[in-house]
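Side project, low priority. Logging it here so it doesn't get lost.
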Amino acid sequence: MSRTATPACLSDRRMWRKVVARCHPDAGGDHELCIFVQAAQEQLVHGDRDPGPRARDHRDRSRPRSNQGDHYRPDRIWFDSTVDFRERTLAILFWAARESEPYKSVLLLLVDCEAVDHGQAYQHQYTGASYKQLAKIARLAGFSFEQRREWYLLAESLGVSSRHAMHVIGRLTRQGERAA
């Protein structure tokens, strides 16, 4: 019997994040399926190790324990800081070009978001967006309550950085000033 090649390593956190995001109830998935996928992830990734009482809590299982090495910040989305900023921006733009509104026009504002090589802006390129930043974007873009919930999941699955968020906020603010 021939086996199909596995496209990604079973311990790939990015792929697990995508699977959990797809079956999460907030994204229209099934609650029981989401819990099953998280349990499968724990078993496949962590094996027989006891993950401890914190990891047994449902809120902690739905998010990897760290978003930037050992510097987990609960006020920010999960973020893989090993991905190059330019590659991440291109991936977001590629995704946005194939999607429909309301997220498409917001994400396409990143088309002129340039990478920098030093300073605080460089640090923001490799830090996940804060929930406050994402909420401000949702407010400026006029998202409904349901669209806001989807926006948070989308931002996390795409890996929107703090620099991306600041750029979009600036562009939306300038658009609002011109319209007023």
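Brief comment: The chain has two domains: 13-61, 85-179.
Revisit when time allows.
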